[in-house]
């Protein structure tokens, strides 16, 4: 039987969907079935990582894009 | 995650052939992400410069891009290399492999000697109008905790949890083994105390 602290150390695998051996998966699931603290920990770690994902950057503004293109173009001219 | 429209073989072919509109589209979609990656290693102005240099290098190398990795992965690797070069010029070397720093389990004090929770996770308000993770004060807290992480953990967290790249791509970008990337991401989430911080914030409302 896994200890809670061992579940904490393995929780990333569950959150990331890392393939686990049948044995590992079984022992994690057994523990989670019985332990509400660890169930809560995994649920919260999932919520936290999902939240971080939403901070992902939007697309660049057109003037930013133009600045990059100008710079690329300029460097091409100077090396050609 | 990479934008699927920019990763098709047809689109890559247009890019390699020097199609300007295609290149502009790539800049539009990927510039902010590359900036996000560079900012994990450099001050904002230096990050801008690293990404700009990255675009120049990428534009030159594009005809040789073989599409063995996703375009986004390839670009990120170029930008990270630019960032590394900048740091090196300033006399700093970045170590991407995990070091002893942050190796201890940051949640260890919440378990008893038998490995059971002695201070279990608190209930987080995950939904409703005052949902914990959407509160502005918490965003500032997250920001400052992420800033305070070691560079390698911050970069791994940025690529994995913020940009959603998969572990293989991150290995490829950072030149670090898959198991070491997992160690870095784990440390960033739990051991660099992001979890602890949010849990404490739920209780006290303080960072």
Describe the structure.
- The complex is a heterodimer of chains A (80) and B (207).
- With 80 residues, chain A is mainly alpha-helical.
- Chain A has one domain (4-79): Arc Repressor Mutant, subunit A.
- Chain A is built from 4 helices and no strands.
- The longest helix of chain A has 18 residues, at 36-53.
- Chain B is mainly alpha-helical.
- Chain B folds into 2 domains: 4-89, Rna Polymerase Sigma Factor, Chain: A, CATH 1.10.1740.10; 108-204, Winged helix-like DNA-binding domain superfamily/Winged helix DNA-binding domain (Arc Repressor Mutant, subunit A, Orthogonal Bundle), CATH 1.10.10.
- Chain B is 59% helix and 0% strand.
- The longest helix of chain B is centred in the N-terminal third of the chain and has 20 residues, at 20-39.
- The two termini of chain B are 30 Å apart.
- The model of chain B has no long low-confidence stretch (mean pLDDT 90).
- The chains are: A mainly alpha (80), B mainly alpha (207).
- The A-B interface holds A 3-6, 8-9, 11-12, 16, 18, 37-38, 40-41, 43-45, 47-49, 51-53, 55-60, 62, 64-65, 68-69, 71-72, 75-76 and B 20, 23-24, 27-29, 31-33, 35-36, 52, 55-56, 59-60, 105, 107-108, 111, 114-117, 120-121, 123-124, 126, 133, 142, 157, 160-164, 167, 182, 185-186, 189-190, 194-195, 198-199.
């Amino acid at each position: 039987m896994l200890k809670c602290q061992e579940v904490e150390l393995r929780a990333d695998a569950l959150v990331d969907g890392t393939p686990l051996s049948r044995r590992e998966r079984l022992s994690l699931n057994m523990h989670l079935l019985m332990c509400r603290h660890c169930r809560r920990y995994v649920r919260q770690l999932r919520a936290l990582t999902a939240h971080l994902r939403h901070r992902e950057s939007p697309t660049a503004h057109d003037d930013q894009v133009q600045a990059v293109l100008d710079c690329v173009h300029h460097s091409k001219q100077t090396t050609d | 995650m990479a934008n699927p429209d920019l990763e098709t073989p047809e689109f890559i072919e247009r890019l390699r052939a020097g199609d300007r509109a295609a290149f502009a589209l790539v800049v539009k979609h990927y510039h902010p992400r590359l900036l996000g990656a560079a900012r994990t290693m450099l001050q904002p102005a230096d990050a801008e410069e690293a990404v700009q240099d990255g675009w120049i290098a990428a534009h030159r190398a594009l005809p040789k891009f073989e599409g063995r990795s996703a375009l986004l992965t390839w670009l990120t690797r170029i930008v990270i290399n630019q960032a590394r070069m900048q740091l090196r010029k300033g006399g700093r070397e970045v170590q991407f492999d995990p070091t002893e720093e942050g190796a201890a389990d940051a949640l260890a004090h919440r378990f008893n000697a038998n490995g059971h929770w002695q201070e279990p996770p608190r209930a987080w308000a995950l939904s409703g109008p005052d949902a914990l993770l959407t509160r502005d004060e918490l965003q500032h807290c997250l920001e400052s905790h992420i800033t305070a992480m070691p560079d390698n953990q911050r970069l791994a967290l940025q690529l994995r949890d913020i940009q959603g790249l998969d572990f293989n791509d991150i290995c490829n970008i950072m030149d670090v083994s898959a198991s070491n990337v997992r160690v870095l991401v784990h440390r960033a989430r739990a051991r660099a105390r992001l979890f602890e911080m949010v849990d404490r914030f739920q209780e006290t409302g303080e960072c």
